[in-house]
Design brief:
Structural class: mainly alpha
Number of helices: 4
Distance between the termini: 40 Å
Largest sheet: none
Helix content: 55-70%
Number of strands: 0
Radius of gyration: 20 Å
Strand content: under 5%
Number of domains: 2
Order of helices and strands: HHHH
Length: about 100
């Protein structure tokens, strides 16, 4: 006998995960079964769970932060810049904002 699990997820998350798993040669249902199987195998989450820092620069020392600022000034002087809308979109994708 097989049981059914139903979950609600954001449409965008479903679309992106379906595409990812298809690209990996599987489907979302199989990926979820793989997750559950691995959770049982390791007796917990099959990956590390961490709290995301609200501010990714919080962990930097003053010297490290100043170094990053200097590097960004050098990049700007060389014309290595990105449109602000592109940066915001990239951050939303990367950090799930």
């Amino acid at each position: 006998m097989a049981s059914t699990i139903q979950i609600r997820v954001d449409d965008d998350l479903k679309i992106k995960s379906d595409k990812l798993f298809k690209d990996l040669g599987t489907d979302t249902n199989t990926a979820i079964r793989m997750f559950l199987t691995q959770a049982l195998a390791v007796n917990g989450f099959p990956f590390e769970i961490k709290r995301r820092n609200a501010n990714p620069y919080e962990a930097l020392t003053e010297a490290e932060l100043l170094g990053k600022l200097e590097k960004s000034r050098e990049h700007a002087a060389q014309g290595m810049v990105k449109d602000a809308d592109d940066v915001v979109r990239d951050m939303k994708e990367k950090y799930g904002l």
